[in-house]
Amino acid sequence: MAAPKVAVVGAGVIGLSTALCIAETCPSCSVTVLSDQFSPNTTSDVAAGMLIPHTYPGTPIHVQKQWFKETFTYLFAISNSAEASEAGIHLISGWQVFKNTPKEELPFWSDVVLGFRPMSEAELQKFPQYRFGRAFTTLKCDCPPYLLWLEKRLKAIGVQMYTRKVADLWELHSEYNIVVNCAGIGAHQLVGDEKLFPIRGQVLKVHAPWVKNFIRDGDGSTYIYPGIDRVTLGGTREKDSWSVSPDPGTTKDIFDRCCSLEPSLRGAQDIKVKVGLRPSRWCVRLQREVLSRGGVKLLVVHNYGHGSGGFSMHRGTAKEAAHLVEECIAALQGSLSRAKL
């Protein structure tokens, strides 16, 4: 058959990395990315891009660990290459601190990050309100550099990218053989997924180059994540809030909370406020579906609903989505050979 035409809907970290994995896994495919927003206007551009997993209650832990491990391994290799600076990927060490000792002794990802260990009494003196902590080194993707690096990689291997708002996946059936839905929070409307809901996140991006280590309150409600140029201060987790307008009261609250963890942030300059809607559900939707109208079929692969864990899991879920696309291609070729018979 002619080269299968694949459309990826969505150009955040999930859409771009999925398009890249499909192009790498199925080189005979023609891959196109369609999105109404590209960087710097995606939810991924607001994210801190820290590789600290968020747990999905409806996804088996061994699957989440595999996704995280594949993502960490992939980004670790980039961080060790000459492209690290352009891709915005770097190693970062820091502390996760707890007011009470957590029930789980070791999170599932403790042997994937580097140098995971309990904090010493001397380290804990930095955080007088906290009784327990973990120290480790992980990776951080700076946005938009990482998204722009992914776009550059895609263009280099012939992937087309178009600004287009897709209102219904079916509208693509006459142009593409397979459609991959990486629409993030847009999937709520695009495919009517009632299980998908926004968790609003407001963050501050500040200039504070003296802050070198990440600091995360145990539950992740307050965090300080230094990037290459700016430090991300967070945050909020407001379930079912669709507002993308910054709230001044929230800005002050975030700043005060972060300053209580790291008092030197009182000297931070050039504070910019960003808001993003995390596409959240009980579990990531990563599956095949066949849409059918009037005897015509459209093969669809869904890969969305990563919530707070998009960066931590993106390469692992992109690889799995690419394998599902391979299965779709095999099904297309099988139905074509049957039709010839």
From TrEMBL:
GO terms for biological process: D-amino acid catabolic process; L-aspartate catabolic process. Its EC number is 1.4.3.1. It catalyses: D-aspartate + O2 + H2O = oxaloacetate + H2O2 + NH4(+); D-glutamate + O2 + H2O = 2-oxoglutarate + H2O2 + NH4(+). D-dopa binds at residues 223, 278. One of its GO terms (molecular function) is FAD binding. The keyword NAD does not apply. It comes from the Eukaryota. This is D-aspartate oxidase.
